[in-house]
Amino acid sequence: MSTDKADDAAADHETSGRPGATAEVRAWFTGRLPGDWFTAAPEIQVDREEITVVGSLAGPEPAGASDTERAAGAAGRIRRFREETRGRRVEIAREAEHKFRRKVSWGVTCADSAEMFTTLSVPVMTRLRQNERRVLDTLVDAGVARSRSDALAWCVRLTGENADSWLARLRDALRHVEEVRDQGPGNA
Prior knowledge:
Radius of gyration: 20 Å
Strand content: 5-15%
Number of strands: 4
Oligomer: single chain
Helix content: 40-55%
Number of helices: 6
Strand order of the largest sheet: 1-2-3-4
Structural class: alpha+beta
Order of helices and strands: HHEEHEEHHH
């Protein structure tokens, strides 16, 4: 989860069409979140429906601990954080949901562990031609996915994992489009 300008421009384009919307959300959360919750500024992603806040917790440091013990310690810290902050997270999420008109999802990382507490699964409607439907049906028939919907989600995840550099270039291009749009008539 990056906070560079290209990602901001792409997120702004996806959010409200308003330049700076992602920066505004990040600034609001930076000011609103308790300073002792995370070891660094949380990573915040924004799209049309959801704001995702992921913070880093201090990892357990038991001397001479095995990987299994460190993983158990991280799981314990994550669980403690989730339970101890639930009320405040709900309060902050309600404020943000009212202000930004998006649901808020929470997650944390600790050592080598990561856990999302809440996330949205948003239905997306699309029209596919027969050749495209056959791809989804092949994935279902092969047992890779349970349904066409799962197969489509699998394809999106696979594309995202394998097309990082292409998507980075596309986000950079969107940033340039936003800059040109901001310099246009009536935006001065």
